[in-house]
Amino acid sequence: MAGARNVHDDIVVSVLAELRNQLRGGGCRPFTGGGSVETKPVQIRRPDIGVDCGRRDPDATKAASPRVVVEVLSPTTRDFDTIGKLEEYKLVDGLERILVIEPNAPEVIVWVRGADGSWRRGIRRGLDQEIDMRRSA
Question: What is the pTM (predicted TM-score) of this model?
Fold first, then answer.
């Protein structure tokens, strides 16, 4: 995202570093907004952060098997991120979690796909909260 506020960038870097540490040694890896997720045929979206658990192709530009996407809200994309993109992400096979981070308060909306394919919404408020990122299915 060009021209992001420093708070947005700080959150992206912090989440990316934590995911990198948590995923080290496993089959999944985080990616930045330079990567993409195919939400529909020939429709890609670029989350601020994602987790890909698919086979790594160094020449690819989209995640092979995305499991998590993270969007950090900004004034210019807030509505699209929370409505349009969210609904597209929910259509992605294999996606397990969608995190929507509010940069103006310690708050994260966590969407988790259940074993039956339905999505559940939860909210974590406060700096002392943790988000369970274990596989749901």
Answer: 0.90
